[in-house]
Design a protein that fits this description.
The structure is a homodimer of 92-residue chains. Chain A has 92 residues and is mainly β. Chain A has a domain of 52 residues. Helix content of chain A is 4%, strand content 40%. Chain A contains 1 helix and 7 strands; from the N terminus they run E-E-E-E-E-E-E-H. In chain A, strand 5 and strand 6 form a beta hairpin. Chain A starts with a strand and ends in a 9-residue tail after the last helix. Strand 5 of chain A pairs parallel with strand 3 of chain B, so a sheet runs across the interface. Chains A, B: GO terms for molecular function: 2 iron, 2 sulfur cluster binding; metal ion binding. Chains A, B: It holds the Pfam family zf-CDGSH.
Chain lengths: 92, 92
Protein backbone atom coordinates (compact mmCIF):
# COMPACT_ATOMS: atom_id res chain seq x y z
CA UNK A 1 0.00 0.00 0.00
CA UNK A 2 1.23 3.51 -0.74
CA UNK A 3 1.58 5.97 2.16
CA UNK A 4 1.02 9.46 0.80
CA UNK A 5 2.20 12.39 2.88
CA UNK A 6 0.66 15.71 1.99
CA UNK A 7 0.95 19.38 2.68
CA UNK A 8 -1.94 21.20 1.14
CA UNK A 9 -2.73 24.90 0.74
CA UNK A 10 -6.23 25.97 -0.31
CA UNK A 11 -6.18 29.22 -2.28
CA UNK A 12 -9.41 31.02 -1.28
CA UNK A 13 -9.41 33.29 -4.34
CA UNK A 14 -8.98 30.59 -7.01
CA UNK A 15 -10.29 27.75 -4.80
CA UNK A 16 -7.30 25.82 -6.15
CA UNK A 17 -5.72 23.27 -3.92
CA UNK A 18 -1.92 23.25 -4.05
CA UNK A 19 -0.51 20.01 -2.80
CA UNK A 20 3.12 19.35 -2.03
CA UNK A 21 3.21 15.67 -1.56
CA UNK A 22 5.54 12.82 -1.33
CA UNK A 23 5.07 9.15 -1.83
CA UNK A 24 6.78 6.80 0.51
CA UNK A 25 6.93 3.05 0.84
CA UNK A 26 4.59 1.25 -1.42
CA UNK A 27 5.06 -2.05 -2.96
CA UNK A 28 7.40 -1.18 -5.85
CA UNK A 29 10.26 -3.66 -5.19
CA UNK A 30 13.31 -3.16 -7.29
CA UNK A 31 13.90 -6.19 -9.47
CA UNK A 32 17.19 -7.90 -8.55
CA UNK A 33 19.17 -10.03 -10.99
CA UNK A 34 21.96 -11.81 -9.15
CA UNK A 35 24.72 -13.50 -11.16
CA UNK A 36 25.66 -16.44 -8.99
CA UNK A 37 29.19 -17.84 -9.11
CA UNK A 38 29.44 -20.94 -11.39
CA UNK A 39 25.65 -21.01 -11.23
CA UNK A 40 22.46 -19.53 -12.66
CA UNK A 41 20.88 -16.06 -12.71
CA UNK A 42 18.65 -15.61 -9.66
CA UNK A 43 15.88 -13.06 -10.33
CA UNK A 44 13.52 -11.64 -7.72
CA UNK A 45 10.83 -8.94 -7.82
CA UNK A 46 8.07 -7.85 -10.18
CA UNK A 47 8.99 -8.58 -13.81
CA UNK A 48 7.64 -10.09 -17.01
CA UNK A 49 9.43 -13.15 -18.39
CA UNK A 50 8.63 -13.40 -22.11
CA UNK A 51 9.49 -15.76 -24.95
CA UNK A 52 10.51 -14.56 -28.41
CA UNK A 53 6.84 -14.18 -29.43
CA UNK A 54 6.04 -12.04 -26.37
CA UNK A 55 4.13 -14.77 -24.51
CA UNK A 56 4.52 -14.43 -20.73
CA UNK A 57 5.64 -17.16 -18.36
CA UNK A 58 3.76 -17.32 -15.09
CA UNK A 59 5.98 -17.00 -12.04
CA UNK A 60 5.92 -16.13 -8.34
CA UNK A 61 8.47 -13.35 -8.27
CA UNK A 62 11.56 -15.53 -7.78
CA UNK A 63 13.22 -17.84 -10.29
CA UNK A 64 16.57 -19.07 -11.62
CA UNK A 65 17.44 -18.81 -15.30
CA UNK A 66 20.09 -20.96 -16.93
CA UNK A 67 23.26 -19.14 -17.97
CA UNK A 68 25.50 -22.16 -18.62
CA UNK A 69 23.59 -23.19 -21.75
CA UNK A 70 23.22 -26.85 -20.71
CA UNK A 71 19.87 -26.90 -18.87
CA UNK A 72 17.34 -29.38 -20.19
CA UNK A 73 14.53 -27.23 -18.82
CA UNK A 74 15.50 -23.90 -20.43
CA UNK A 75 14.99 -21.08 -19.76
CA UNK A 76 15.10 -22.37 -16.20
CA UNK A 77 18.14 -23.70 -14.40
CA UNK A 78 18.09 -27.47 -13.65
CA UNK A 79 21.56 -27.57 -12.05
CA UNK A 80 23.19 -28.90 -15.23
CA UNK A 81 25.95 -26.34 -14.51
CA UNK A 82 27.19 -28.76 -11.82
CA UNK A 83 27.37 -31.69 -14.28
CA UNK A 84 29.33 -29.71 -16.87
CA UNK A 85 31.56 -28.00 -14.22
CA UNK A 86 30.47 -24.58 -15.48
CA UNK A 87 32.92 -21.95 -14.27
CA UNK A 88 32.07 -18.26 -14.21
CA UNK A 89 32.81 -15.96 -11.28
CA UNK A 90 32.08 -12.38 -12.40
CA UNK A 91 32.47 -9.18 -10.37
CA UNK A 92 31.01 -5.72 -11.01
CA UNK B 1 6.47 12.07 -13.54
CA UNK B 2 3.47 10.97 -11.50
CA UNK B 3 0.16 12.57 -12.34
CA UNK B 4 -1.92 12.68 -9.13
CA UNK B 5 -5.61 13.28 -9.47
CA UNK B 6 -7.28 14.52 -6.32
CA UNK B 7 -10.60 15.20 -4.77
CA UNK B 8 -10.06 16.96 -1.48
CA UNK B 9 -12.44 17.91 1.32
CA UNK B 10 -11.26 20.31 4.04
CA UNK B 11 -12.96 19.66 7.37
CA UNK B 12 -13.34 23.13 8.95
CA UNK B 13 -13.79 21.78 12.47
CA UNK B 14 -10.76 19.48 12.57
CA UNK B 15 -8.88 21.32 9.81
CA UNK B 16 -8.17 17.85 8.45
CA UNK B 17 -7.87 17.45 4.75
CA UNK B 18 -9.49 14.27 3.38
CA UNK B 19 -8.11 13.37 0.03
CA UNK B 20 -9.47 10.76 -2.32
CA UNK B 21 -6.78 10.43 -4.84
CA UNK B 22 -5.56 8.22 -7.58
CA UNK B 23 -2.18 7.84 -9.11
CA UNK B 24 -1.92 7.48 -12.83
CA UNK B 25 0.96 7.05 -15.22
CA UNK B 26 4.24 7.57 -13.58
CA UNK B 27 7.51 6.03 -14.44
CA UNK B 28 7.13 2.55 -12.93
CA UNK B 29 8.01 0.42 -15.99
CA UNK B 30 7.60 -3.28 -15.63
CA UNK B 31 10.93 -5.00 -16.07
CA UNK B 32 10.89 -7.24 -19.16
CA UNK B 33 13.13 -10.28 -19.55
CA UNK B 34 12.88 -11.60 -23.10
CA UNK B 35 14.32 -15.04 -23.89
CA UNK B 36 15.47 -14.65 -27.47
CA UNK B 37 15.57 -17.66 -29.78
CA UNK B 38 19.09 -19.18 -30.03
CA UNK B 39 20.30 -15.95 -28.46
CA UNK B 40 20.74 -14.06 -25.19
CA UNK B 41 18.39 -12.75 -22.50
CA UNK B 42 17.33 -9.19 -23.34
CA UNK B 43 16.41 -7.23 -20.20
CA UNK B 44 14.78 -3.79 -20.14
CA UNK B 45 13.44 -1.57 -17.34
CA UNK B 46 14.49 -0.57 -13.85
CA UNK B 47 16.46 -3.37 -12.15
CA UNK B 48 19.61 -4.06 -10.15
CA UNK B 49 22.22 -6.35 -11.71
CA UNK B 50 24.36 -7.75 -8.89
CA UNK B 51 27.35 -10.07 -8.64
CA UNK B 52 27.61 -12.85 -6.03
CA UNK B 53 28.92 -10.36 -3.44
CA UNK B 54 26.01 -7.97 -4.01
CA UNK B 55 28.03 -5.36 -5.95
CA UNK B 56 25.90 -3.58 -8.54
CA UNK B 57 26.73 -3.22 -12.23
CA UNK B 58 25.95 0.16 -13.73
CA UNK B 59 23.62 0.03 -16.69
CA UNK B 60 21.21 2.14 -18.75
CA UNK B 61 18.04 0.07 -18.40
CA UNK B 62 18.66 -2.25 -21.37
CA UNK B 63 21.20 -5.05 -21.67
CA UNK B 64 21.76 -8.59 -22.96
CA UNK B 65 22.95 -11.36 -20.65
CA UNK B 66 24.62 -14.49 -21.93
CA UNK B 67 22.58 -17.69 -21.65
CA UNK B 68 24.66 -19.96 -23.89
CA UNK B 69 27.57 -20.12 -21.42
CA UNK B 70 30.24 -19.28 -24.02
CA UNK B 71 30.51 -15.48 -23.78
CA UNK B 72 33.99 -14.14 -23.11
CA UNK B 73 32.48 -11.01 -21.57
CA UNK B 74 30.12 -12.69 -19.04
CA UNK B 75 27.65 -11.84 -17.71
CA UNK B 76 27.07 -9.96 -20.94
CA UNK B 77 26.38 -11.50 -24.32
CA UNK B 78 29.17 -11.10 -26.91
CA UNK B 79 27.42 -13.10 -29.67
CA UNK B 80 29.46 -16.23 -28.94
CA UNK B 81 26.12 -18.09 -29.28
CA UNK B 82 26.52 -17.65 -33.05
CA UNK B 83 30.02 -19.20 -33.07
CA UNK B 84 28.92 -22.26 -31.06
CA UNK B 85 25.59 -22.58 -32.96
CA UNK B 86 23.68 -22.35 -29.68
CA UNK B 87 20.15 -23.67 -30.19
CA UNK B 88 17.33 -22.88 -27.77
CA UNK B 89 13.82 -21.84 -28.87
CA UNK B 90 11.61 -21.81 -25.76
CA UNK B 91 7.89 -20.97 -25.57
CA UNK B 92 5.79 -20.05 -22.52
Amino acid sequence: MWRIGQQAVLCRRTQQLWIRGFIEGGEVMTVEIRIQDDDSLEITGKFDLLDEDGNAYGHHGKLRLCRCGASKTKPYCDDSHVEINFESKVRA
